[in-house]
């Protein structure tokens, strides 16, 4: 069943992706125009043009990703002790690494910097990475787990502290498979992932019975006073794509019973959170 869900999610995203949907509208509209069907072409080209204009004039990406990033914040105060630091995969650029034969990172590389900072704060605590290939067809010998081992040691973490889970392909499988490698099944763990991805991650952790203290990183939205008309189409697309994917993921995971709530938030009295608080790890 997990395999079916994985395949269907990949196929569905190929259509639901804003960039792909935009391209499909443009291609279909252009094709009808070349064939002489002007009215049919207009039905595709008009919404595509409207979407393009909206990206130029409005911060659509910020509007969509900010609620995700502000839902769960870094704790005002870190716990005195912790049983491990969980790092979700996603910051690795496997294809770039294979192409250039040196470790490459993507947009979510802040996950590694966050892990490094927490590793200094808890020098005896294991660092637990979880993530495998999430592509339907790709196998070139190097995996995100292989790359994560290199990256985590490059940011100063002793490899003796590393626990690597390399088979999971999505966030649900991350936490399913984590249960087999956690040092303490009923322990408490710091969870490091991108801020926009944290609500779904927390919801799945809660559903799987894993106690986590969220430590979101990799913030991408801008504050309201910085959202100005600057025709930054590519910048907004970079935010819109992962934000829309996350909202779709939250809905799909809730419908299929993989998360505790549709829009999860951290619960419990031990850790209080604030949207204005940042933790000083020095």
Automatic annotation (TrEMBL):
This is DUF218 domain-containing protein. The chain crosses the membrane at residues 20-37, 44-66. Keywords: Membrane, Transmembrane, Transmembrane helix. Residues 83-249 form the DUF218 domain. GO terms for biological process: Gram-negative-bacterium-type cell wall biogenesis; peptidoglycan metabolic process. It comes from Methylophaga muralis. GO terms for cellular component: plasma membrane. It holds the Pfam family DUF218. InterPro entries: Cell_Envelope_Assoc, DUF218, Rossmann-like_a/b/a_fold.
